[in-house]
Amino acid sequence: MIPFLDLKKINREYREELLEACSRVIDSGWYIGGNECRDFEKEFATYCGVDRAIGVGNGLDALTLIFRAYIEMNIINKGDEVIVPANTYIASILSITENDLVPILVEPNIETLNIDIDKIEEAITDKTKAILVVHLYGQAVEMKRVLEIAKRYNLKVIEDSAQAHGAIDNTLNRRVGGLGDASGFSFYPGKNLGAIGDGGAVTTDDMKLANTIEALKNYGSHKKYENLYKGVNSRLDEIQSAILRVKLKYLDLEIAKREEIAKNYLENITNNNILLPKRINGTVWHLFVIRSKNRDRLQNYLLERGIQTLIHYPIAPHKQRAYQEWNGRELPITEKIHNEILSLPISGVQSQEDTYTIVKAINDFN
Ligand SMILES: *Cc1c(COP(=O)(O)O)cnc(C)c1O
């Protein structure tokens, strides 16, 4: 069986260093809000090319806290609209509705599968305050054009970088996380930079925003026992921070290994009934997403040959029960994508032999 993602094998590569990191934390007696988190924040900020990184509990919190901070800063008000791609993971949208803001779903571009930049402007109204871009599947959104639109309409630009640690946007020649006003990252174990548990971070160059989030994630307190806001508790603990410091050192190596596999897929999958992903902008191949009109049959066929695949994602956000108010809406491109996509296995520990087996199986599918 070729697993979709072998986390055990991935973390075993760094076992000695990860254990050393855990021992260091255990022996320090300091488990929350210490040097490991501070050092990781500095190292991750440097990696992303930003002034500040703030560790939080998970990726959803990272995004939610950005909007919450803008509300506390009176830059965004409850009821305001936020433009977001209709083709995304539900967390992007939850971060908006959690703050009583209104998501305006914009169809994706069928080539990039990211937000269709040509459709952003027509979605802007008097109530629009921000654009939440999602660098989905690891491919960076072409940010130059997004920033131009945002500037013209005085909108904040927030990045959901949960799937794209290290991806470079070729239109600005910068890494994701530093392309807009603020960015949310997830360190969920299956992400390209994954912890051994939950974790997330906000990155930004905006000091005021960073300080507001620092307080909000800490019960709304900037100073012990003094509370400015009705905040939350969302922490990146010392063990996860120490683990992430180890794995951050190898992130570029992991990305390079994924690139090898993606190249192999792109060059050697020749089945005309399969649509391969297009590399329009810089990508870290968090997911390698192919499309087929016979997706479900293809998935079963691959499984019969011992190849595990997944669907990211099977139900579009506007078709979810949680967002019943949107269930009647038609977003044909988003729906088409959800019906056709299939994610192939890809990771730093996948052998060439396994990649070959997958390529051959797909080429033999008809
Ligand atoms: C994983 C993910 C999130 C949420 O991150 P968690 O750490 O699981 O909360 C948000 N957005 C996208 C696009 C994701 O893939």
Q: In words, what does this structure look like?
A:
With 366 residues, the protein is of the alpha/beta class. It is 38% helix and 15% strand. The protein contains twelve helices and 13 strands. It has helices at residues 7-12, 15-28, 35-48, 59-72, 90-97, 143-153, 207-216, 238-249, 251-268, 295-304, 332-340, 352-363; strands spanning 52-56, 81-85, 102-106, 128-134, 156-160, 168-169, 174-175, 182-186, 200-204, 221-223, 226-227, 288-291, 341-344. A seven-stranded mixed sheet has the order 1-9-8-5-4-2-3, with helices on both faces. Helix 3 runs parallel beside helix 8 (238-249), helix 4 (59-72) packs across helix 7 (207-216) and helix 9 runs parallel beside helix 12 (352-363). It is globular, with a radius of gyration of 20 Å. The two termini are 22 Å apart.
Number of helices: 12
Query: Which ranges are low-confidence, i.e. pLDDT below 50, for 5 or more consecutive residues?
Result: none
The ordered H/E elements are: HHHEHEHEEHEEEEEHEEHHEHHEH
Bound molecule types:
pyridoxal-5'-phosphate
What is the overall pLDDT average? 98
- Quick one: biggest sheet? 7 strands, mixed
Q: Number of DSSP strands? A: 13
